[in-house]
Design brief:
There is one protein chain. The protein is built from 9 helices and 7 strands. By secondary structure, it is α+β, with helices and mostly antiparallel strands. The chain has a 5-stranded antiparallel β-sheet. Strands 3-4 form a two-stranded antiparallel sheet. A hairpin with a 4-residue loop joins strand 3 and strand 4. Helix 6 packs across helix 9. The protein is globular and about 55 Å long. The N terminus is likely disordered. One of its GO terms (biological process) is DNA replication. One of its GO terms (molecular function) is DNA binding.
Length: 204
């Protein structure tokens, strides 16, 4: 009984949970998040997460949600917010949202399926870059983006060689942020090939 009271009265500013758009989540979930007024980050659809390594079975497609209150709120209040999205009842309180923000794209988990930071959804002023990347890393991250675009980097190996040869100041970031760098490269070329052929001239 004492444990239950402690759990119910637990307070925090940052809470995270799972939702299943296209399944148990209501169709208007994005609008509900907007009108909540809360700063919210929502991961890309995790549809490549492996449930069973032996069989290769994938987990049910889902999104991770980080909801951020301006002031501390109770677990009970946070649970009421998440209930409307039809996900698992268990939610987690975060001491700091940075680690979870990075997990939205598996940024520090190279053994897991990578997802693009461009597909992170931001509601009501939430800023994924400011939360997931420390100030110094933000500058390095955007330098990597610029380098990939200007040099038409085709792969992670090419990026490391370019950093080693001409941008040694970016080498440490590139070797530590493997998933981020790979996703930047993938996103650049994915956007490039999505363009009409006549619009690609001069871009590669």
């Amino acid at each position: 009984m004492t444990h239950q009271r402690k759990t119910t009265n637990e307070k925090g500013r940052y809470w995270c949970g799972l939702i299943y758009p296209g399944d148990s989540c209501p169709d208007d979930w994005e609008n509900r998040m907007k009108i909540s007024g809360l700063e919210i980050l929502v991961s890309p659809v995790h549809d490549q997460d492996i449930a069973d390594i032996a069989t290769g079975e994938l987990k049910k497609p889902h999104r991770h949600v980080i909801a951020m209150w301006a002031n501390t709120t109770t677990r009970q209040n946070a649970e009421r917010f998440f209930e409307q999205f039809g996900g698992p009842k268990v939610i987690l309180r975060l001491e700091n949202p940075r680690g979870m923000a990075r997990y939205l794209i598996h940024m520090d988990d190279p053994d897991k399926a990578p997802y693009s930071p461009e597909d992170v959804l931001e509601f009501n002023g939430a800023d994924w870059k400011k939360i997931a990347l420390v100030e110094g890393n933000q500058s390095d991250a955007m330098s990597i983006v610029k380098l990939v675009e200007e040099e038409r980097i085709h792969g992670y190996f090419d990026l490391l060689k370019a950093c080693e040869a001409d941008h040694p100041d970016l080498l440490e970031f590139a070797t530590k942020q493997v998933t981020f760098c790979r996703e930047v490269i993938w996103s650049y070329w994915n956007s490039y090939f999505a363009l009409p052929k006549e619009a690609r001239h001069g871009k590669a």
